[in-house]
Design goal:
Two copies of one chain form a homodimer. The first copy, chain A, is α/β, with parallel strands linked by helices. In chain A, about 40% of the residues lie in helices and about 15% in strands. In chain A, helix 12 crosses helix 13. Chains A, B: It is an enzyme of class 1 (oxidoreductase).
Chain lengths: ~450, ~450
């Protein structure tokens, strides 16, 4: 089959842009409105998206307290997706969860449960949860170092995968006649004893429908890339231009190959924030309309929040340049990216937050539906992307625009599906179902005998 | 309004009785079948139950590995209930979660999220998760002592409640015109620094619809009763006879009063496992049919599992008496209860597990619908119960029997509702919505000025 674009939809109920909730079409309470999330899921499924994706923080986030950010309080992603699963049939659900502040047993179980009740549509976006604000909600004064968080993340992900594998696929017998419910030879302790975790297992959930829920990763730092290369099957990434996306794509695919994995089984999906119009002019006026709604104090707080509280601009003039500062432990890659944008464009603080407010470091496309489709096609065909994570700047309008105007063009060009191919998220993404290592080991022994 | 019986439905998909999955009417895969859980929720709502209740373990449980227990692997309660919430409209959902192995921030958030997406139908059953098997899934070799677990539980529950209160009810302004999304004066750090937890807050979820999800507790030990008296609004409890239930009822109501709380706002709901027939004879044959399905090894493993692995009967003859042993740290009250049953009835090991297999220490009623209703009425009117947690021995049959045969009798006697009174779980249970302490403090200051 021809290679086609994969699409995630990044749909926080309050919208992606910091002023999204002020948009005339948006419900002001979208962040905490379940029926609104249900409508978003239905639209994403109508658009044949692979998955609904949600980022997450374990604190109110964004540094300052005062202000207008709708993301400050809302649903926990796994419970929200569990509620949306029975209301949909094909859409995948990629929930963010933390390796720094959650235990492997609890995390493995909730994703196994989501995968079971959605019939194989769960994905886990692995994050290490930067920032002291979050650390202070979990018995610490400051966050662990970047290196420590990633070391723990490696061990965490391997432990979670081992727990998902602790029951073999055929462990359940359920024979009413003999009373044998399961085969004790096909359920296994994992006996993990590492630097960060000791977990005996087995998990108290059957092996997930997908074997493993799809493992997703988004870190762009050196540590993040290393983790992605050995663990991730989908990688979300933020790039401002084609060359940067191509560099990342080549680097990750090479790392994946060096790690002994098949590069075709690791999908790279940059974020794209599309302002779509019937004409370029209409798209541009949508862009300007939304940016005009940003309250300045919220813009400054956004920059600080995005860097885990390491970019405090209090007291600096809004129409002056970004002050110089040293790199800190929090969110290295994100602060570097934001500074690069400011440097490249010669932005003032105000111009910077206006730019960032739309897509937070992701690629912003403003144009007619044909122009937007052209951009996606170019990235997809020039080794910059296997698909995209679409970040509609406001909701529901920008999602509707993408589904109604851009998707049909991609379909006509043969670049996107016209019906779901499979039953599970993994099948739609074209990713193989992981073999169970216990089953594999027994098959190997039997073949040798 | 006349006082009426409150009803919880304890509906693990695999059934309550250890051999429930072998029942001819039961789906053998009920424990992991989402559509089956949906049917159970719909039946419970048709029966006007206050809530669907699920217990929980953080390990495969039940000591031995081999065997026929369907509870060994299944859904995580909060994700399951999140999925069932949009498919129902009035039924409450009481999920069990652990104060020993979960962080207050994460726990407060997932219940706030469940409460939000269910429009105020969440309840939290507070447990301390006994047993070394569980401890070994969470970086320990042995469990913390009983006293330590309960000390931590007290601090945990207070921290969770403070997080739920960190946003005042009217904190969200969402004024599109001014761009003010919330009132910074109505969101608060909790700044908790205790022996077990340091949590700064605020929670990244709005105050729950119910103020607090309903707090439920089930411990029967001295430590458990102390926790229930200061924290719980619903208390599940296990009694074999009226006198024992009355003693517990009187003791708890007195403790609640001494703690400065209103005893009418703490509902005591003993567990009842009903075998209902159109005649007593039919009920008795249902009871015998189910007990005949127990595999002996599973019965022995059940006794050990129920006591947190402290009652290892390997090597003792099944038709001999229960051996003497010392009380250990694990599940004090449960082991004492099981020994008491064996002593009172002069049971052999086999007879003991057959008795326990039905209701695990709860009250078993075998009789015609009128007889079962008589028993519930007697307990309800003689200060033994404010309601009951119904444990159908197998599913769906025993739940259907209760809803179709017993509920109409209770309704005719005026002992049970004929329609839901309220919108939230708290309203149906007749429990007040907790005031927010920050709002209260401001009102007090303003009144004094």
């Amino acid at each position: 089959m021809t290679r086609q674009i994969k699409l995630g939809a990044f749909l926080p109920g309050g919208g992606q842009h910091i002023a999204a909730w002020r948009h005339p079409d948006a419900p002001a309470d979208g962040a905490t409105n379940f029926e609104f999330h249900r409508r978003l899921a239905e639209t994403a499924e109508r658009g044949l998206f692979d998955a609904y994706f949600l980022a997450d923080n374990l604190s109110v986030g964004l540094g300052g307290r005062e202000g207008g950010n709708a993301k400050i309080a809302g649903f926990e992603p796994v419970t929200l997706f569990a509620a949306l699963a029975p209301l949909t049939t094909h859409l995948g659900f990629i929930a963010t969860a933390s390796t720094t502040y959650e235990e492997p047993y609890t995390l493995a179980r909730k994703f196994a449960s989501l995968d079971l009740l959605s019939n194989g549509r769960a994905g886990w976006n692995v994050v290490t949860s930067a920032g002291d604000e979050t650390a202070r909600n979990f018995n610490r004064e400051t966050q662990p170092s970047h290196a420590d968080r990633y070391e723990r993340a490696h061990e965490h992900v391997e432990t979670v995968k081992a727990l998902w594998d602790s029951w073999e696929d055929d462990a359940f017998i359920r024979d009413k006649a003999t009373g044998r419910f399961f085969d004790a030879g096909r359920v296994h302790d994992i006996d993990h004893k590492g630097k960060h975790f000791s977990v005996k297992g087995p998990l108290n959930a059957p092996r997930p429908v997908q074997g493993h829920p799809v493992v997703v990763q988004a870190g762009q730092s050196e540590d993040g890339r290393r983790l992605a290369a050995v663990s991730a099957e989908v990688i979300f990434t933020a790039h401002q231009n084609l060359a940067s996306a191509q560099e990342f794509y080549r680097d990750i695919k090479a790392r994946v190959k060096r790690a002994g994995r098949n590069p075709e089984h690791v999908l790279i999906m940059p974020g794209v924030a599309p302002f779509v119009g019937r004409t370029e002019e209409e798209a541009r006026s949508k862009y300007e309309e939304l940016n005009a709604l940003i309250v300045p104090e919220d813009g400054v707080a956004l920059l600080n929040g995005l860097t885990g509280g390491t970019l405090d601009l209090t007291g600096y003039p809004l129409d002056g340049p970004l002050p110089v500062s040293n790199e800190t432990e929090g969110m290295k890659s994100r602060q570097a990216l934001i500074r690069k944008i400011a440097d490249e464009h010669g932005f003032t603080i105000r111009q910077l937050y206006q730019w960032i407010a739309t897509a937070r470091g992701h690629y912003t496309v403003v144009g007619s539906a044909e122009q937007v489709a052209d951009q996606l096609e170019e990235w997809f065909l020039s080794e910059a992307a296997d698909g995209f994570n679409i970040l509609p700047p406001w909701l529901p309008g920008a999602l509707d625009d993408f589904v109604d105007l851009v998707i049909p063009i991609l379909q006509r060009r043969g670049l996107f599906r016209t019906a779901y191919e499979g039953r599970t998220l993994r099948e739609n993404l074209g990713l193989p179902r992981p073999a169970n290592p216990w089953t594999l080991a027994r098959a190997t022994v039997q073949a040798a005998e």
